[in-house]
Amino acid sequence: MTTFVGADIGNWHVKELKPVRGESIPFASHLQIEDHPTSTPTTGIWKLRGFVSNIRYTNHSERKKILAVQEGLGRPQATCAALIPIRKNEAWWNLAQDERRAIFEEQSHHTAIGLHYLPAISRKLYHCRDIGEPFDFLTWFEYAPTDAAAFEELVTALRQTEEWKYVEREVDIRLIKV
Amino acid sequence: MTTFVGADIGNWHVKELKPVRGESIPFASHLQIEDHPTSTPTTGIWKLRGFVSNIRYTNHSERKKILAVQEGLGRPQATCAALIPIRKNEAWWNLAQDERRAIFEEQSHHTAIGLHYLPAISRKLYHCRDIGEPFDFLTWFEYAPTDAAAFEELVTALRQTEEWKYVEREVDIRLIKV
Asked: Among A15, A48, B23, B63, which residue carries the largest CB count within 10 Å?
């Protein structure tokens, strides 16, 4: 379980925090990421928890393409980051697996869009729908300042998809490495 | 989050508790099911926690067939129950979504087998892989004593599937309503 803590201190400085759809979360000047719960967690303005899980939509050939080109988190040049919590509506979650997959990829090209921006934009997905959190997913992105325009293209493209019609809450937090 | 508590008291009497594959769990004479965490949870010999989530493999037409015939839990005549915790191996979880789906249904006919025993055998699936529990899934079944033979057929059929080759730990707990 990973906890993202919006606080007065942290390894990432919050450059901007804005609601994209639905209610926002309070502003915090910094973000601290806690991968391992400690007995003295950071006291924060807000906390968002999530866990990494098995892949839910990506098929074998898509994953092969991703693995061939993606780079990990923590690259020295990747001093820009974004944390984008989203929640999808009940209509999405009431769909069967094949219906969600068809919207996600065949209609919205979610994986194909992300693949286009690899290896520049690194990404890690955390799930939180099933643990009583206010969002369903927390996506963490890292990129170099020279790839900032590419990142804007990526989020703009995703927000124009059929899949995004099911997003009922989204907050966009942009960060700079301290 | 639902907690299954193996204890000295509870609404279900444990008739049998046996390992099917891998390590067992300690015997407890009763099972208490706690759907809502309270400030004074039952003190138990063991506790297994899980949550209901969105469907992961079932497609639209399969779900339609299930919804047309299934019955809910808590039927007065359904005085027999089974709690079957299982854990799948890393090979399973490393597969892409389409590969897991193909093994689950096209090769193993998991949904089709379950459908054959509806409405006699009611079923509810709890997920627990992502929350640090010792099992990946807890499946709860309820049926009338007259359907006990059908239930044996169902579990026997599932254990002979390709999917079950990925099960590395399984415990079978049979219960009678107190």
From this structure: A48
Residue B170: pLDDT over 70: yes
Query: Residue-wise over A85-118: b if at least 16 C-beta within 10 A, else e?
Result: bbbbeeebeebbbbebbbbbbeebbbbebbeebb
CB of A62 less than 8 A from some CB of B:
yes
Read off the pLDDT of each residue in A35-49 and give the average, rounded to a whole number. Answer: 80
Asked whether A22 and A166 are in contact (CB, 8 A), the reply is no
Does residue A89 belong to any structural domain of this protein? Answer: yes
- DSSP E strands in chain B: the ranges are 2-7, 12-21, 30-34, 46-50, 80-88, 122-127, 137-143, 167-177
State residue A41's pLDDT score: 65
Please give the residue range of the domain that contains residue B172: 2-38+47-177
Is residue A12 a part of any domain in this protein?
A: no
CA dist., res. B42 & res. B176, Å (int): 19
Q: Please indicate whether, in this complex, the C-beta atoms of B53 and A129 are within 8 angstroms of each other.
A: yes
Decide if A82 contacts A150 (C-beta within 8 A). no
The CATH number of the domain holding residue B54 is 3.30.70.3420
Place of tokens 């806690």: A34
Q: Measure in Å the smallest separation between the Cα of A5 and chain B Cα atoms.
A: 19
In whole angstroms, give the CA distance from residue B14 to residue B118: 24
**A118 domain-assigned:** yes
pLDDT on residue B39: 60
Interface contact B51-A131, CB threshold 8 A: yes
Q: Model confidence over A50-86: pLDDT tens digits?
A: 999 999 999 999 999 999 999 999 999 999 999 999 9
pLDDT at A149 over 80: yes
